[in-house]
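Fill-in record for Phosphoglucomutase.
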Amino acid sequence: MNPNVDARAGKPAPQAMLVDVPKLLDAYAELRPDPTEPAQRVSFGTSGHRGCSFEASFNEWHVLAITQAICDYRRQKHITGPLYIGIDTHALSQPAFESALEVLVANEVAVAISAGGEYTPTPAVSHAILTYNRNRLDGLADGIVVTPSHNPPTDGGFKYNPPNGGPAETDVTSWIQQRANALLESRLDGVKRMSYPQARRSSLVQEYDFLGRYVEDLKNIIDFNVIRSSGVRMAVDPLGGAGVHYWQPIAQRYGIDLSIVSDSVDPTFGFMTVDWDGKIRMDPSSQYAMQRLIGLKDRYDVAFACDTDHDRHGVVARSVGLMPSNHYLSVMVDYLFRHRPQWTDKASVGKTVVSSSLIDRVTERLGRRLYEVPVGFKWFADGLFNGVLGFGCEESAGASMLRHDGKVWTTDKDGIVPALLAAEMTARMGKDPGELYADLTGALGKPYSSRVDAAANAQQKARLAKLSPEQLQSKELAGEKIVGVLDRAPGNNAPIGGIKVMAENGWFAARPSGTEEIYKIYGESFRSEEHLQAILQEAQGIVDAALAG
């Protein structure tokens, strides 16, 4: 058991833990970031800028500066199509949206906002960008998603998706970050802005039916006929997130037996159970955060949830309860490449370096190529866009895949499609994903895996990110000879921002979080739980030595 687990983990969030939303919004408007303080500067992690208004790390000035930087980037790159913008249900998302619109319209950018003020999942924004850009060579669209993903209710987030529809690559985010910080240093000199009411009335702002268009197109990626005819009983918990109003139209449009556990939206997320570290976090891959849905597992054939911007999935199978994300990702790879006959035989499998090695074994058995990259879904965007990747996934329950016809669906993570795929495979195979996973491990070996998170400040995170193979003194890992040490990903030779150490029957990887003040140690063994614990213990010693040095 992880000694860092809070005593309140898995229990309903107490009233005293809930954020004071009016105070949070006041802090957003009133606090001014100090650009000489590193924690208060604009900083794009693995997926955009995130922070908390109380800590002066996500405030009005941040959003105004980032949005102006995006406008400047668009101008430099001659991106002249509409910008699609969506928000999630975090309290800071609406004021950040309003701040962004003030700058976008003042810069004469055509903006597509959600019809009726509906919340917008990340995949719906990516889908809209790609739909608009299809067969276009110029006048391309791009997008912004206002979301801190599954982060706590106090947080806000802001990310940019260029015309390929996926998360912006490092060279793009570095440029935007640098320009935004220069604007902060100049006290917003150079930021164009108008009032929100004036911006909202502008003819440059048009409503777009993200929900209707996304739901209607789902038939081209999920086989609803097999789900409907099988009578599979499903449940979904939107966790009060951006897709909360998407599920009923999906059930009605495709005639499937889908129960919605809750459609409540509450910016305090007071309905959640507390996550591992004593925080409220809408993480569908966390057993602590998913207690409500886990408790319903025996009432449905399969159930699922998505995080706040609906780009991550969690699957609860009747046979096993909540599936660890690596388990379900492995099942998806095996299922998809056997049941998508229109995909080219050259389509590869994409995974991050900290995802399960069972995916490697499944991919090898399928005769497919493995494309292994650093953490961050941006590394899959181009491959999904051009169809070279049939499927891309990261260990934190993020994935996307191609349409039935082998063409691009989204180039950002999509939590809704993998959730629905769990119902499709249950219907077609007559086994739920937990049972399919048991079949896989029976044939390919059973992995034992875990992740340990621990607090780390900015200096410690920076030290860990620069760990190199040369610094590793050990020749063995948990009694086995070390066969490889990586600080770059095999698929694209990009730095992994940490280190991965591999032995014949196990491995560990250590890296700092891109979005929180923690570091993460991932470990996996194909021998036993005891072997896994030995791997994690030795990994902890290596990381502690690095942080102390």
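KEY FINDING: The two ends are 28 Å apart (CA to CA).
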